[in-house]
Amino acid sequence: MCANELEEVKVEDALLERPETRSDSHSITCHDICKDTDHRKLAICSIICGLSCFGIISLKYSVKAREMKKRLKNEDCPQTRKKVKKYSEKACKWGIGSIVAWVVLILIFPLLVGFVSFVVTFMD
C-alpha cells in the first residue's frame, strides 16, 4: 500500500467510528474529512445551489487557499500550513452556510406568505 492509500484508510476508519469510541475528543471538521483540499467544488455548488453572495465568499477563500498552496509549495513552514488550513476551513464553512441558508429561505418563505395572508384576513 502506498502512503495515499493508507491516509484514505485512516480517514475512512475515523469516519466510520462512533463518536464515543473515537480516540480524540474533538468533532470532525471539514478539513478532517477531505485533507488538503481547498473546497473549490463545494464553493461552486454553493453559488449554484445556495445563496450566491455567500458562495462567492466561499469561492474567494477557496482560491486563496489554492493559490497559497501553489505559491508556497516548496516552503513547508507551519505558518503557511496554518494559513492554507484557515482559508480552506473558511471556504468550507461559507459554502455549507450558503446551502443551509438557501434551504432555510425556501422553507420559511411559504410560512411567511401564509402568515401574511392570515394577518390580512383579520384586518378585513
From TrEMBL:
Record-annotated membrane-spanning stretches: 41-63, 91-120
Keyword hit for Membrane: yes
Top-level lineage group: Eukaryota
GO cellular component terms, semicolon-separated: membrane
Keywords tagged on the record: Membrane, Transmembrane, Transmembrane helix
Pfam families: CD225
InterPro entries with a match to the protein in the record: CD225/Dispanin_fam
Subcellular location(s) per record: Membrane
Family that this chain belongs to: Belongs to the CD225/Dispanin family.
Official protein name in the record: Uncharacterized protein
